[in-house]
Structure formats: structure tokens, C-alpha cells
Design goal:
Distance between the termini: 35 Å
Low-confidence stretches: none
Shape: globular
Helix content: 10-25%
Strand content: 25-35%
Largest sheet: 5 strands, mixed
Number of helices: 3
Amino acid sequence: MADFHGTQEVVTDLREDGVLIMRINRPEKRNAINAVTSAAMEDIMNKAEKDKRVRVIVVTGTGEKAFCAGEDLSELSSGGECMTVTDHGFGGITDRLCPKPTICAVNGVAAGGGMEIAVSCDIVVAAEHARFGLTEPKVICEY
């Protein structure tokens, strides 16, 4: 098995059928992405693109309340620098043309950057209680 582990904030599981499941694992922060999480997601995506055993990538969140609340603003409010945008966009996903199918399994709220991640995937599967929202009301999205 390839080394897909990122951090304890991003958990992965490569199943025998070639499905790589990547979970944002910060339920206490509504799975908001910080610099560490974003870098780990970028690293996992880079490795998955090259690994022949990976046939499809599923991105989801841990817990039932939030898929991803976007950027972790608490890092910015404490004077830190969040750095959630990597070479391939927010969470290493939003500005990427991945040669392998990506599925976003939205199991709660997808707000701001979480919604950006969801719509950047090839397929979005939403739980019955899933909700989507942009936090910047005047942003015009061109896809």
C-alpha cells in the first residue's frame, strides 16, 4: 500500500477495489481546513494521481454536522497565516485537473471553501441533510 497518510487531521483508507477515501478529520472545527490539513490533502492527491492502484478518490468529512466549513478562520484571527491555498488550489483540490475521477461525499454542511471543494470534484453525492452555502454573497463563480 502506498503511503497516503497525511496527518491525524486528514485520514485515508485505500480499499482493495482501488477506492481511496480521504476524510477531513477535524469535527471539533467543523472540518475547517488549516495550513496543515491543506498541505496533507495536496500531498495525498499528488500521490494518488501517480499510484496505479488508485482508481477513484472520494473526499468526505468526519462526523455528521459538517463536510467542510471552509478555511479555519481561527488561525487568521490569532494573527497566524493560514496558507490553505496550495499549488492546486484550496485543499489541494480546487485548481486541479486530476486524471482520476474524484467524488465528493457531502455528509453535512459544505460552506465557503467546502463548497468550492465539492463543486471541483467530478461527482457530488449529498446526504439527505447536506447543505451548501457560499460565505461571499457577491462572488461570481465561473465554471
